[in-house]
Amino acid sequence: MVSSEKPMLKMNQKRLLFTKLPLMAFSVLMVIFIIFNLYIKNPFQHSSNVQNYPSTKRFSLLIGILTRADKHEHRRFLRLIYGIQSSPLAQIDLKFVFCNLTKQEQRVLISLEILKFNDIIILNCSENMNDGKTYTYFSSLPNILSHPYDYVMKADDDVYFRLLPLASSLQPLPRSDLYYGFVIPCQSMDPFVSYMSGMGFVLSWDLVEWIANSDIPRNDTIGPEDKLVGKWLNLGKKARNRVSNKPAMYDYPGMNGRCSHELIPETIAVHKLKRWDQWLDVIRYFNVTKDLNTSKLYNDKECEFLYYLSSYMLALALYNDSSEVMKSYDLEVDALPSNLYAPNSLK
Q1: 218 and 285 Cβ atoms separated by less than 8 Å
Q2: Is 236 exposed, middle or buried (0-12, 13-18, 19+ CB in 10 A)?
Q3: What are phi and psi of 335, to 5 degrees?
Q4: What string of H, E and C letters represents the secondary structure of 264-294?
Q5: pLDDT at 190
Q6: What is the pLDDT of residue 269?
Q7: What pLDDT, on a 0 to 100 scale, did the predictor assign at position 65?
Q8: Burial label, 141 (beta-carbon count in 10 A; 0-12, 13-18, 19+)
C-alpha cells in the first residue's frame, strides 16, 4: 500500500510543476520587460548622462555673464549672490566671460580664480563693446564646452537674476528655436517687434549652433551687439518661439522712465545696478539673507551689513594688493589646461 502511494505522489508533484510552469514563465517575462523599460529603453533615468545632471532636473541653462577681466571684486560679489541660489527645475551653470588677458596682473589673479571656482571663460578676442564679443561668445560655445545645454543666456554684470523664478518661467517653454528676454522698445509687449535687451536674453541650443555655423552672423558682427542678434535671427528666419517676460524683467527704479519700474515680488531680473546702494536695496527687498541661521558667533543685527561690506572690502583689498602678491609668490598657471581659455591667454 505504501509502495503504491509513492508513485502517485511523484506524479502529482510533476503535474503541479507543469501547472505552474506557465505562471513562472510569465513572471520571468514580466521581470525582463520591466528591466528593459527601466534600464535599457531609458538608461538616462538610472545612470549619469553626458552632462551628469540629476534626473530631477528638467533642463539645463548656462548663464554667461559678460564682464571685464579687471572686475575681480565684482565677480566675488556675484559669486555670493548666485552661490546661495538654486532651482529644483534646472541645472544652472554660471560662467564669467571676457576676452584675452592683456596684463600679467590679470593672468595671475584670474588663474587663482579659475583654480578656486572654475567659472571663467576667456574668449579669443580683444575686449570690446560693439565689435563682436557677443558673436564670439555664442559662436565659440559649441567648440569649447564639454556638453550642450538646453538654453544659453548672455547677461550683463549689472543685473540681479532670481534663478528660481527664471527657471520656472523657462520650464514650460519650447527647447528649440527659442529667443527669450526683455523686448526692445521698452513699451512694446510684442516679442517679434525688434530684439531682446542685453540685460539678459536666452537662446535655445539649436540657435547657438546656428550662430556658430551660419554666414549670416559671421559676416555681420560690428555694431550694437544685442540688436544684431535680433537682426541675425530675423534674416535667418529663426526664433519662431519668442517670449518677452515683462514686467518681471526691468531696469532699477529711476534709471530709465520707459524700461524701469518699482521693485515687484514677481521679479526675474533687475538691470542697471550701477552702485552698491542699489544692490543692497535689491538684496533687502527680496530678503536674500532670510535663510541665515541665528548663531552666537555673530551679532544678528549687524550681520547683513557686515557680511556684504566685508566681502566687498576683502575683494577690493585683494585687487589693490595684487602687485605685492605677484612679487611674493612664483605662481604657476600650467595646471589650467582647458578649452574654456583662449590659447596662451594665461601665459
Answers
A1: no
A2: middle
A3: -85, 20
A4: CCCCCEEECCCCHHHHHHHHHHCCCCCCCCC
A5: 97
A6: 98
A7: 98
A8: buried
Q: 71 vs 76, 155, 276, CA distance in Å?
A: 9, 15, 14
Max CA pair span of the chain: 108
CA-based angle 311:315:319, to the nearest 5? Answer: 170
| Range list of β-strands (E), the chain | 59-66, 90-98, 120-122, 151-156, 160-161, 178-181, 183-184, 195-196, 200-204, 241-244, 249-251, 269-271
Place of cell 503535474: 15
pLDDT at 8: 58
Q: How far, CA to CA in Å, does 336 sit from each of 73, 110, 259, 331?
A: 22, 11, 41, 12
- Looking at residue 7, what is its pLDDT? 57
Q: What is the dihedral of CA 205, 90, 268, 161, to 10 degrees?
A: -90
Other CB atoms within 10 A of residue 80 CB: 15
Instruction: Give the pLDDT score at 308.
Output: 53
User: For each successive 10 residues of the chain (347 residues), what is the average pLDDT?
Assistant: 53 56 56 43 32 68 97 96 94 97 94 96 93 96 97 98 98 98 96 96 98 98 96 98 97 88 97 95 93 78 52 47 44 58 66
Task: Give the pLDDT of residue 29.
Answer: 52
- Cell matching residue 117: 571656482
Contact 208, 141 (CB under 8 A): yes
Centre a 10 Å sphere on the Cβ of residue 300 and count the other Cβ atoms it contains.
10
**What pairing do the DSSP bridges indicate for beta strands 241-244 and 178-181?**
parallel
